[in-house]
Specification:
There is one protein chain. The chain has five helices and four strands, in the order βαββααβαα. With about 120 residues, the chain is an alpha+beta fold. Strands 2-3-1-4 form a four-stranded antiparallel beta sheet. Helix 1 runs antiparallel to helix 3. It is globular. The N and C termini lie far apart (about 35 Å).
Length: about 120
Amino acid sequence: MISIFVTFNIKPSYLKQFLMASYGDAKGSVGDEPGCFRFDILKDQKISTRVHFYEVYKDQAAVDAHIKYPHYLEWRAEVEKYFENEPEITFMETAEFPIYSSVDLWVQQKNHMVNEIKG
């Protein structure tokens, strides 16, 4: 398992557009990518224009495939102009502790991760 934590600093006037575009990318990632198990969008509590993504993938091949999907390419083309600076990306490996974070558990919960965004 590979997890990614990405930090974005967004220009204030583009925050809402960034979030809406990112919801589409998250939905496409979990809904259309068999190797993407989680995609959370988190707003920083102290800096209102800072947004974090927490993503979980089956393996490196799934990470590599992610940036080739149409939903990602569309998202990236739209949001790049919203960035204050380049995103900060941290790659992590899930510690092998099968009781908590086994691949089977991630696969079982995958279908519950996608909900329609209202509003």
